[in-house]
Structure formats: structure tokens, C-alpha cells
Design brief:
By secondary structure, the chain is of the alpha+beta class. It has a single domain, classed as Deoxyribonuclease I, Chain A, CATH 3.60.10. It has 8 helices and 18 strands.
Length: about 300
């Protein structure tokens, strides 16, 4: 199970309650956004106590720590029950906004990418340059399972007939959405990840499971006296991971533990680690191993 959450501004006084959520859900992989230097160690130590012995965060990878201020004060964390290897070589404006690792899991290597795309309303083209950097890195085929998840601050809207409305599009008085010529690059940047990565086996898990007839959201945008539910938090994953369920957990946003609803994705990987001995099976009915079970499997290989 994968758990992803924008914890909002480093968690603050809500950290213990947020960690209780993770404890109760028992995920195998955790991806958190809006970490801060001040609080990331608190999360890390607590997660280790929950059995996540392998943890990385983007603050450890920053070449110049003095840049982590203002809009760049937020970073990312990935926690896993299985060994991790950093594979963070994205070309993006703010290096702390994507964290990539290779997970040495019982079902084979999983490339897991955690992302927090900056909002365009306050950071302009940094948002689109980040989308393009993610696409340029991941627009390829891989022999590993792959997952891209996090807070993408997009799209603006999804219609029931399957249309994605980006922040480059404008709603006209006649009710139609149009794309001004000056916004074509912006529109293409958002769609590069939201739509085009599906050409490289990184499809939108929620839509692959439920189509566009079902709508949901992870964040509520407020403008004056109006509210606009938005599905900003996503998971894109390889078909080989065989996702079987995706759920936004609104109760924790409603309890004000964050302004985003976390989500959980359950996978039933449909093929074995190619390195395992013939006839040796992995658990595919539940994507969950204890640390001891993992060691036993690896000892068998040796």
C-alpha cells in the first residue's frame, strides 16, 4: 500500500496526529509533501518507530541549504519498509520538489517518485518548468515498476466526459472552455504529466480504476465566498503493479490535520521479481511484507 499526503507547512502541532494516521493504515510506502527542515527529523524518527527503516528526504540532497527559504522552504520525504537507493537526477528549477528512489521490494525494483509541483499563481513558470522536467525524465520505458505521486496543483477541472481542463484554459461566458494562444505552452506543460506520461506506462491510477463518471477531490480552493473542489493529488503507476483501489481520505482534511486529503493506493502486483528462483512466489494478494519476511525472501535468493 502507498500512502501520500501534503501535510501542510511542515505539519506543525498536527504531526503526532498525522503520524497516528500512518500508524493505523499500515502502508508499505509513504510519500509526504511540504516537509520543513525544522520538522523533517521528527517525522523520520517517528516513522522509524513504525517500521519504516529506510527514509530519504530532499533536504539531504540540496547543494546549497541557504536557498531553502520563502517559497522554497518545503521539501519531500519518502519512507519505506524496504531498502532505498536515491535516483534523483531531475532537471527542474527547484531541486527539492522531486524525490526519486529505487525501492528494493519483494516484487522487484520499484522506482518511486514523490513530487510537489509549485502553484503557478504564486510562482509562475516555475510550475511549468517543473512539469516539463518531470516529463523529460520519466518519458521513457523502464524494466522496473514505477510510481509517480504527490501534489501537482493541477488540473483546474475534470469533466464527466473525460476532458481535463488545465490552468491555461479560460471559461467563457457561453460556458465553453477555450485555450488562448498565449497559454498553449502552459497547457502543454500540465498535460505532459497529467496525460502524456500514460504513453510511457505511467497512467493516472484513479482514472484507470474509476473512469471519469466518478469525481473526487483532494483540496478545496476558496475564492471569496465560493469553494472549488480540486483533485490536485495524484498517483501515476505502471500497469504491472496492478492497482486495485484508490481512496482519498477526506476525514483527515475535515479534522483539519491538513488542507489536503491524503490518499492510499493498494496494489496487487501481477508478476514476480525476475530474480527470484523459479516457482518461488511473492505475496500478490496483499502488497505488504514485514521487515523479517523481506529478509527471509532475500536470504532464499542467496
Amino acid at each position: 500500500m502507498l500512502f501520500s499526503w501534503n501535510v501542510r507547512q511542515g505539519g506543525g502541532k498536527r504531526i503526532d496526529e498525522q503520524l497516528n494516521v500512518i500508524r493505523d493504515l499500515h502502508p508499505d510506502l509513504v510519500a509526504l509533501q511540504e516537509m520543513t527542515i525544522k520538522n523533517v527529523d521528527q517525522y523520520s524518527e517517528a516513522l522509524k518507530g513504525l517500521g519504516f527503516n529506510h527514509i530519504h528526504n530532499t533536504f539531504k540532497l540540496i547543494s546549497e541549504p541557504s536557498i531553502i527559504v520563502g517559497p522554497r522552504r518545503y521539501g519531500l520525504l519518502i519512507a519505506s519498509k524496504w531498502p532505498l537507493e536515491i535516483i534523483n537526477d531531475f532537471v527542474i528549477p527547484w531541486e527539492e520538489r522531486v524525490l526519486g528512489v529505487k525501492v528494493d521490494s519483494p516484487v522487484g525494483h520499484i522506482e518511486l517518485y514523490n513530487s510537489h509541483v509549485p502553484p503557478g499563481s504564486s510562482n509562475g513558470w516555475v510550475k511549468i518548468d517543473t512539469f516539463e522536467g518531470i516529463f523529460n525524465k520519466l518519458a521513457c520505458y523502464s524494466c522496473n515498476h514505477r510510481i509517480l505521486c504527490g501534489d501537482f496543483n493541477s488540473p483546474q477541472l475534470e469533466t464527466n466526459d473525460g476532458e481535463i481542463i488545465t490552468w491555461g484554459q479560460v471559461l467563457y461566458k457561453d460556458g465553453s472552455w477555450r485555450l488562448p494562444p498565449k497559454s498553449e505552452k502552459w497547457d502543454a506543460g500540465e498535460r505532459s504529466v497529467l496525460e502524456r506520461l500514460s504513453n510511457y506506462d505511467l497512467g493516472d491510477v484513479y482514472r484507470s480504476l474509476y473512469g471519469f463518471a466518478k469525481s473526487d477531490y483532494s483540496f478545496i480552493l476558496k475564492r471569496k465566498d465560493k469553494v472549488f473542489p480540486r483533485r490536485f493529488d495524484h498517483c501515476f503507476a505502471s500497469k504491472t503493479l496492478n492497482p486495485v483501489s484508490f481512496k482519498y481520505l477526506h476525514i483527515y482534511r475535515e479534522q483539519k490535520l491538513s488542507d489536503h486529503s491524503p490518499f492510499i493506493v493498494t496494489f496487487q502486483p501481477n508478476h514476480l521479481d525476475k530474480n527470484l528462483h523459479e516457482g518461488e512466489k511473492t505475496r500478490s494478494d496483499k502488497f505488504s511484507y514485514t521487515e523479517e519476511e523481506f529478509r527471509v525472501l532475500r536470504d532464499i535468493k542467496k
